[in-house]
Amino acid sequence: MPAGGKGGKGGKGGKVASGKSKKAPQSRSLKAGLQFPVGRIHRFLKSRVAAHNRVGATSAVYCAAILEYLTAEVLELAGNASKDFKVRRISPRHLQLAIRGDEELDILIKATIAGGGVIPHIHKSLLGKNIAKKPLKSSGEEAIGVSQEI
Question: pTM of the prediction?
Answer without folding.
Answer: 0.67
